[in-house]
Design a protein that fits this description.
The structure is a single chain. β5 and β6 form a beta hairpin. By secondary structure, the protein is α+β, with helices and mostly antiparallel strands. The N and C termini lie close together (10 Å). The protein is built from two helices and six strands. 16% of the residues lie in helices and 22% in strands. It has a domain of 61 residues.
């Protein structure tokens, strides 16, 4: 899910810093770069920051004080929607985020640990959304 489009290196660095501080994994642009330093595309053309939809509530908090210098009008509907997490067992919406495992050097992506208030099922998933 695209959370923001940036048009400058400075704005990309600021957004990366906010997401890193919040522990939210992200991809940048169509090349799926995981850091601003790895981006080879052209910032003035606009680059999308993408996260897994599960991270939306945390991204919303991280973006509260994000103040881009080159803020072009975002497309209608680019507001961050609530994450739609359902229990894989009973499909209930009554799920609780129990814990997160941070990303470590050389480790797999961050994982979220969930439980279902309806059926008691527990599971974990990775925080990187696959592109559709």
């Amino acid at each position: 899910m695209t959370i923001r489009t940036v048009w400058s290196l400075a704005d990309a660095l600021q957004l990366q810093n906010r997401l890193d501080t919040a522990g939210i994994p992200f991809y940048i642009g169509s090349e799926k770069a995981t850091s601003v330093d790895a981006v080879t595309a052209n910032f003035p053309d606009g680059l999308d920051f993408q996260i897994m939809s599960i991270g939306v509530p945390w991204a919303r908090q991280a973006l509260q004080k994000y103040t881009p210098a080159d803020d072009r009008a975002q497309e209608p509907g680019e507001e961050l929607d609530e994450a739609s997490v359902r229990c894989p067992n009973c499909h209930s919406w009554e799920v609780v985020l129990e814990d997160t495992e941070p990303v470590r050097d050389g480790a797999s992506p961050q994982r979220f640990r969930w439980t279902c208030d309806t059926c008691g099922s527990a599971w974990e998933d990775h925080a990187i959304e696959e592109s559709r």
